[in-house]
Amino acid sequence: xxTIIAAYSGVLRGTGSNVxxxxxxxxxxxxxxxxxxxxxxxxxxxxxxxxxxxIACTLILxxxxxxxxxxxxxxxxxxxxFDWNTPKKGGRRSQxxxxxxxxxYFRDYFPIRLVKTHNLLTTxxxxxxxxxxxxxxxxxxxxFSTEATGVSQKFPGIRPYLATLAGNFRMPILxxxxxxxxxxxxxxxxxxxxLSKNGSGNAIIIVVGGAAESLNCTPGKNSVTxxxxxxxxxxALRHGADLVPVYSFGENEVYKQVIFEEGSxxxxxxxxxxxxxxxxxxxxxxxxxxxxxxxGLLPYSKPITTVVGEPITIPKIDNPSQKDVDFYHxxxxxxxxxxxxxxxxxxxxxxxxxxxxx
Length: 358
Known about the structure:
Blueprint: H1 2-13, H2 17-65, H3 70-82, H4 95-98, H5 101-109, E1 112-116, E2 126-131, H6 138-144, H7 151-154, E3 159-164, H8 174-180, E4 183-185, H9 188-196, E5 202-207, H10 210-214, E6 223-224, H11 231-239, E7 242-249, E8 256-257, H12 265-276, E9 284-287, E10 295-296, E11 304-308, H13 322-343, E12 356-357
Parallel strand pairs: 1-11, 2-5, 2-7, 3-4, 3-5, 6-12
Antiparallel strand pairs: 7-11, 8-9, 9-10
Helix pairs in contact: 1-2, 2-3, 2-5
């Protein structure tokens, strides 16, 4: 506010070029403030979508059923039954939604970048292993479910499908919102369909570490849950889909959370939720809505750089043995570590930093 008053005073006192310069300063100051607010709003809407949209839409639909507008809810429920299996068949993406201006503000809030290291052939299908999960997988969403970082320009002819919990697609309205961005359920039916009945040029992005990995994410720590995660390798072998390691530098920096030690009551509760519901509740915080010095649900404005590594050619084996799975899993782990080591110093990490593979 003081800066605005000073600029305005300069306009009153100055003449000629001084007046023009002061007006330009005032214009750019106001523009930057507006853009910052739009960035905050864009991120806040996604955080609320992630946390409460599914439950909120379900409750609203139930309420409408009890009002004079019950016909609207009944029609939507009839449509929901008819459309129930669409998420398992590649979904219903919308280029219009993926290109919303709000996603560019979302990108610039952190900011988020997508780095391409190799070309991808449109005659092949791919499974991207995304690491680490972080609290909300913000880099995965921005890079692969929107066009904010130019994924379609960087990888022409490749259709990205970000895979997430199948339970999200049982929630009214939320399911349609997710599908519009090219998000699909992370289950075998959905992945089999995309990799076998949807042609070539498909890339399924799987956040391999899942809920278990999110429980250990904290600023300053680069660790992935991968040693015993081999299902995605088996899927790649069954379909002959190439594996692509992806590492997002800064994903763990945007939220702080309470880490419960193994054997503690808190970790016991988290594992029970993970086992029976599919996600693990985390106690986390970011910055406040009006101040970066207070606590809140907004993530911290820390840069996230997602590096897409070199594809690993995978043969098609209808019934891969455990030996086959272990062999290509080890190649994948080595490729991920090499990717991390090659780019870590470029994105703010010391040369001595080591990727911890659990």
